[in-house]
Design a protein that fits this description.
mainly alpha, about 0% strand, elongated, Four Helix Bundle (Hemerythrin (Met), subunit A), single chain
Amino acid sequence: MIEAIFFYLFSAILVLSALMVITAKNPVHAVLFLILAFFNAAALFVMLGAEFIAMTLVIVYVGAVAVLFLFVVMMLDINFAALRKGMKKHLPVGGAVGLLLLGELLWIYKSWTPSMFAEQSAASPMPEGVTNTHALGQVLYTQYLYPFETAGLILLVAMIGAITLTLRRRGDVRRQNVSDQVARNPKDVIKVVKVASGAGVEL
């Protein structure tokens, strides 16, 4: 009974916060409602026993993506009134895509039965004393180690490419060139002068 109460509570807050994300006029409020939706979705995953997915949702989406969206929205001076001018023109296409996705979700919901994954779960039962995160780590870092590392390298290359494409050098800013400093000859920049006691030096 208590689990059912918490399930409906988290589900209701998740649905309401998701609706506020698309209906809020202030984009900062929309991002904050998005963070609230992520937290409630993570709570539902914890109730389902998928604590690894819940922590990934909180760390990745809340800790990185949503906060990045919040900083971008707050730092950029975006004219949202100008962006909303073309909303009515694209509303029929967006509504059609939304109805199509809703129909697919309803079709999946009606065709889903608990026996669909019964054979898979019976073929590979969870060993006793092994948590969900432990079992996922064993599979991920043994059987799928090379695809996992390949995905990490692809993300690294994508990050380097994004930094390279967005890097802009300004002419009015003095920058430090380490290679020129290291390759500099000390004889060209340093002059050793022997000064007698009590005498000055002419520059």
